[in-house]
Amino acid sequence: MMLQRFARRPIFRNGSILSSAAGWRSFHSTVNLQESAWRRFLNLVGSALTSDDKINPKKILERRYLYFALTALRYRQLLEAYPESDASDLKVKAVEDLNQRQVDEKTNLELRAEMQKMIAPQALDIFMAFDSVDQTLKLNASAESSEEFFAGLDWDRLKDILGQEEEETIQKLERAKRSSQISSEANRSMEFFNIKLGALQTLLHFHEVRTTPPDSPSDGVDFFGMDANSTTENDLRTKTIRRYQTINLCRSALIRDVLGYSVLCLRSTIADGGRGAFVDGHGAITGSLVAFQPGDIWPKEHLLTSAPDVMAHFESDEDCQTSLRFDDYVLDSRTSPVTILTRDGSMNPWALGHMVNHPTPGSMPNCQSLMFDFTEKMSLRDLLRYIPNVYARPPSWQSRVFDPEPVAMHSMCLLARRHIKNEELFYDYRLQSTETPWWYEPVSYGDEFLDKEQVVFFRDDWKKKESPNK
Q1: Which of 113, 196, 351, 372 has its CA at a distance of 20 to 30 angstroms from the CA of residue 415?
Q2: Which of 137, 354, 110, 364 has its CA nearest to residue 252?
Q3: Closest CA to 373 of 72, 167, 109
Q4: pLDDT for the residue numbered 301
Q5: Are strands 295-298 and 389-391 parallel, antiparallel or unpaired?
Q6: Distance, CA of 144 to chain centre
Q7: This prediction's pTM
Q8: DSSP H helices in 152-270
Q9: Which of 51-60, 203-212, 232-241 has the lowest mean pLDDT?
Q10: Contact 20, 445 (CB under 8 A)
């Protein structure tokens, strides 16, 4: 999330883009999900209606997103199957797999379906890890109040986890410092470990495990990206926030032990950037799902209107937290939680995609945004509490008719573009507006289409304040 950054018109962001690296176009699905005859018929009709997938600029852009995602996901499968193999050889193999499947001949709808099949098992594994950790900590998702929720927790155990995390973070920071002069990766890790250590020590002081607080940053923003002047330790609101932050860091530590990495919301490494999201650990290899986009889902038929209530709702998005899918669904994260991620439908600890910042000028994103659907075939059952989205208004059958398979909830996620280790996440907002914030600079990919092509996602008049009678 970008704080203190102003845009006068609604601005929609849409994920990071495929780089110009040659050959990243492969896919091989290992998941075989059967479709009904009716669904196959609808997909066939949908394919017939998308004959301009290689002509329409918007659809060409989507194909580039999908090519990279499919290749990255296949590369991840190969790396997990053959961990001792050379990474370059596996990338070549991923390219070959995609070519063998003749992906260039597939429509965008077919590519969406292939991508969904590959990423769904990964999302399910992550949800199962969440559930295992939450059962270990005995989190009571049905608690009706914060106090009731806090009362059921083993605070001594949580303090022990914080203490262990502090010791390990100090050790990792020292190792990063020893190699910081020769490794940009170590420099990124050192930034993260410094911020994480400050956050841990802030909480340990709050719980009276440490006698003194850590040295505060000079700009008055604490290690969680909050205004230090608004977090008086004796304030009831501050006490509540610190307890939730304790739970979040402890959940993250245990999730990292299960999956090899986790995601945290802390102070951004960007000056005046407010909060940011970080990968904690080494397990987020290329093609790994690193965050979910929380918020209200707006089906497209409710946006192509001049209804006053819709116009008023999207009048302002100063923090660029409304995201647009390629199928024209909009995800509105503006009121999504950041700290209270443990109850009231906010149980997903990685629902932090709205906190991921746009990369700084001259740098590249390390993850990209993707359409993702929670489908009925995923059989989430007891894991439904981790879906971080709700429909602002229910989609009509017209919106659902060309979904590759029945969808329980439309959503978005972030996928690692490269191996991400102990560092802040960044993805390309690709803002679609004639007026962008002062801090925004387009990402340069060295690709004429990606850098120069103007892609219009919405017709202009849906954002105009017109009388519904006109």
Answers
A1: 196
A2: 137
A3: 109
A4: 84
A5: parallel
A6: 28
A7: 0.85
A8: 155-179, 184-206, 236-259
A9: 51-60
A10: yes
